[in-house]
Write a structure and sequence with these properties.
About 25% of the residues lie in helices and about 25% in strands. It has helices spanning about 15-20, 25-35, 35-45, 50-60, 65-70, 175-180, 195-200, 225-230, 275-290, 305-315, 325-330, 355-365, 365-375; strands at about 10-15, 70, 80-85, 95, 105-110, 115-120, 135, 145, 150-155, 165-170, 185-190, 210, 215, 220, 235-250, 270, 300-305, 320-325, 335-350, 380. The strands form five sheets. Strands 10, 11, 12, 15, 16, 17, 18, 19 and 20 form a nine-stranded mixed sheet that branches. By secondary structure, it is of the alpha+beta class. The radius of gyration is 25 Å and the shape is globular. It is built from 13 helices and 20 strands. α2 (about 25-35) crosses α3 and α2 packs across α4 (about 50-60). A hairpin with a 4-residue loop joins β13 (about 215) and β14 (about 220).
Length: about 400
Amino acid sequence: MLLYIRPMADLQNNLKKFRLEAAFTQQRLAERAGISRQAYSAVEAGDANPSTEVALRLARALKQSFESVFVLAQELPGSVEAELVGEAGAAFHYVRTPKQTPDRARVYRVGQRLFARPLTGPGNARHALVTAEGTIVPGVPGRTVGKSVAVQPFDREDLDTPSLVMLGCDPAVGLLEPELHRRGIRLVAAEESSQEALLGLARGEAHVAGCHLYDDATGTFNRSWVRQLVPFPCTLVTFASWEQGLIIAAGNPKRIQGVESLGNPEVMIVNRQEGSGSRAFLDRALKTYDIPTGNVGGYEWEEWGHMAVAATVAFEAADTGIAVKAAALAMGLDFITLTEERYDLVVPDHFLNEPSVQALLDILRQDPLRRQVESLGGYDASRMGLPAAA
């Protein structure tokens, strides 16, 4: 019996292309190569590599050269190697299945490193499709965050376009894009919890991270968390203060009054993921009202981002959720303000002189952006662009 090995190199194949050209079914080609259809299917899908003997038999059955049927990913025309990044809490493993198409990805540079961030999964929930610079080459099982993947860019010139990479959860971040575009800079914004945004910054995956993390010990926002999670000096710049609270259906049919209503068994919430400032605030509030999390319906139901929470309430899948006021207003929902928080942008000092970061800091000081942000509702942008208070 011929043995198969799991891929040890990024071996790609053109089996499906040549098989269809030859009008072969998988069963017929498998028989010609002397293997089972299931084994052949795994090879064609890229879930396993054939032995040298089987690879030669497959190429011969297709009347093709070995080199035309099998090729290393890094030898694909135009492909580049990039580090795979994404929400670490999602335990993302890049594994292909036969029916999947290549994952679209944001491909960008931070310093001298090239990254690929797949545009799949809950962290990429948007109300519009997001621009991508390329696709991750399929057929590479077992790839995990931090490893290298082969990427096929749509346009190689995009990779040399200056980028501003921002991690965080502020739904207003997209308002930066038009002005950055006018200045020749691509905005690559990824939705991450505040803690994960800081950890991504610490790993060198971004130029800027946004956060709204309260420190119980000091009674202040963000600075102590930055010192704890980021191993190099950073500058904190205020983006805005916002109203945080409970998004509720228009008219408040469940008569939700505040956090004290969340212990009502008839009230279902939608939560934010661990590591987010919103989740941390909710946990503190529940503790204040002496409401065990086990008594809160929907506490384990997590959504990524303020707009995702608002959408869940708007679709009546949940009665309420913790998020910012702007998300409620955008969905035509009611809102109960519980607190005001400061959302800061954290910039590593070694990136302060980057042209894209300088452009961001300049835009933050302009009145048009401040007016746009405040028009969303629930924002105070009067200190936008100024050094964050201690």
